Amino acid sequence: MKRHMAFERLHNFRDLGGYRTHDDRTTRPGLLYRSDSLGKLSGADLDRFLALGIRTVIDLRYPWEIEAKGRVPEYEGLTYHNLSIEHRPYDQEALGPEVPVGRYLADRFDEVAHDGIKELRQTLEVIAADTEAPLVFHCASGKDRTGLVAALILGLVGVSEDDIIADFALTGLATDRLIADWKADHPGRSPRWPGYGQAPAEIMRLFLDGINEQYGSLRGYAEARLDVDDDLVGVLRTRLLV
Questions:
Q1: pLDDT per residue as tens digits for the range 190-226
Q2: Directed axis angle between helix 230-240 and helix 117-129, to 10°?
Q3: Which segments of 170-200 does DSSP mark as H helices, in order?
Q4: How far apart are CA 174 and CA 197, in angstroms?
Q5: Quick one: three-class SS letters along 199-211?
Q6: Cα–Cα distances in Å, from 78 out to 50, 57, 114, 158?
Q7: What pTM did the predictor assign?
Q8: Beta partners for 21?
Q9: How is 30-93 classified by DSSP, letter by letter?
Q10: Closest Cα partner for 33 from 22, 44, 41?
Q11: Which whole-number Å values give the CA distances from 83 to 114, 124, 176, in the listed order?
């Protein structure tokens, strides 16, 4: 299944359908999407987006990011949620070349998983509540915050860790375009950190190893930290699986 969907200005818009679960069900295609910033939508891209029938957008960015870069355009039937799951900003571009990509970002993921428990729980509730129309969640590049939410959702509905890691690493197909966007915003410069925009599988593997060590699984983390119970998981599975 080809997951990246073609847009001119969106580089990392992907369908989370088609993943098998432990009980041989499949995530429903055309229902749940992940993306980089929808503030870039305009013209033909906006038309393509509207044709998907999406009625709910979860924006995982800080309010100051939205103010600086814009948000999804208003349209009839849209429900928009700003749920900023990250509480400790950091500047990837400013990191030195000595900073290891996998370990550094896995540690940031763990911070978000523990700092953003309120917003992560709200994100799950929004996804569970919308039983009909497609939904998309996104951050700036559709990599880190979006990757964490995607891992959580896929893990809760029963997708394997191998597929969760592979889904995260697919952002690597968009890395060159994401870096090109950064360079266009910073003429004459290149990101200082070699890890900028990169999505090696090691990041998600290290993050999941840490979650497993602390809680046994993503489900164990969600139960302990997000107060997720069998009822909520059941609703998510009913909504997202075929």
A1: 889 999 999 999 999 999 999 999 999 999 999 999 9
A2: 50
A3: 175-185
A4: 8
A5: CCHHHHHHHHHHH
A6: 10, 8, 30, 29
A7: 0.97
A8: 159
A9: TTEEEES-GGG--HHHHHHHHHTT--EEEE-S-HHHHHHH--PPP-TT-EEEE-----S---GG
A10: 41
A11: 15, 11, 27
